[in-house]
Amino acid sequence: MAMLTQAMKDMIATQQCFIGTADAEGMPNVAPKRSTRVLSDDSLIFTEGTGGITYANIKRGSKVAVAVVNREILDGYRFIGKPTMHDSGDLYEQAVAMSVTMGLPKPLAVVTISITEIHSLKPGPGAGKRIA
Fold this sequence. Notes:
By secondary structure, this protein is of the alpha+beta class. The protein has helices spanning about 5-15, 55-60, 90-100; strands at about 15-20, 30, 35-40, 45-50, 65-70, 75-85, 110-120. The chain has a seven-stranded antiparallel β-sheet. Strand 3 and strand 4 (about 45-50) form a beta hairpin. The model has no long low-confidence stretch (mean pLDDT about 95).
């Protein structure tokens, strides 16, 4: 497992994250998921509310890439990992409570992502290089 630094956690908490998946034929899909947040030092979580392409790709078994960039400081990260869908249990119930508090509909699921690789998205010679 790759470990998140505090700088990575802070960026995830303050910037828009985009989730990348692929369908069975390899067609890529990228979607903003504003609910993306840190679950632990080596995992992320987001609430799946739409049931669209991202949801279908993960149900089919797609790996996930999460990209986050802070344009003001020209820095960012790509997190690669294995997703797990939860439609019951404690994590799911916490997401339901959070959605209700925010006035949103009950989510279909929450997705946890066990991070296996981290890449830099900072411009320059290290762009795209694996850092963890």
